Amino acid sequence: MCTAPPDASSDAPGPNDSVLTVVDAGGEPWARILGLLERRWCELPVGSVLELHSANPQVRSSLHGWCRLTGSTLLTEKETGDLSAYRIKLPPPPAPGTPTPSTLQKPEFP
C-alpha cells in the first residue's frame, strides 16, 4: 500500500490537466499495467494527470473499470494505429491500510 503523496502547494493555480507523467506500457497485459498505474498513483500529487500508452487493445475495457473503481477520471482516449493513449486524472489515493478492490479479483459470494 502507498503512503500519502505530496499535496499540490496551496498557492498553486487552480486544477491543471497537464500531464505530469507518461506510462509507456507497450503491449504489456493489464495485470502488469495495473501495478504500474497503482505505483504511479501513489507517487504523484493529488489530482495529477497521468498519460498511459498501450499497444494492447484489451487494456481499454480494464482501464475503464479501474477508473470507476478508483474514482479516476478518464479525460481523453486517442487511438493512433496500434497505439492507444489515455489521459487519466487521478483522485487522492486510499489511506494506508484501506482495502481496495482490484479488477483482477472476483467478488466472493456466500
Mind sketching the topology for me?
Layout: E1 19-24, H1 30-43, E2 49-54, H2 59-70, E3 73-80, E4 83-89
Give a quick summary of the entry:
Helices cover about 25% and strands about 25% of the residues. It has helices at about 30-45, 60-70, and strands at about 20-25, 50-55, 75-80, 85-90.
Structure description:
The chain is of the alpha+beta class. The chain has two helices and four strands; from the N terminus they run E-H-E-H-E-E. It has helices spanning 30-43, 59-70; strands spanning 19-24, 49-54, 73-80, 83-89. A four-stranded mixed β-sheet has the order 1-2-4-3, with helices on one face. Strand 1 (19-24), helix 1 (30-43) and strand 2 (49-54) form a beta-alpha-beta unit. The longest helix has 14 residues, at 30-43. It starts with 18 loop residues before the first strand and ends in a 21-residue tail after the last strand. Residues 3-14 and 106-110 have low confidence and may be disordered.
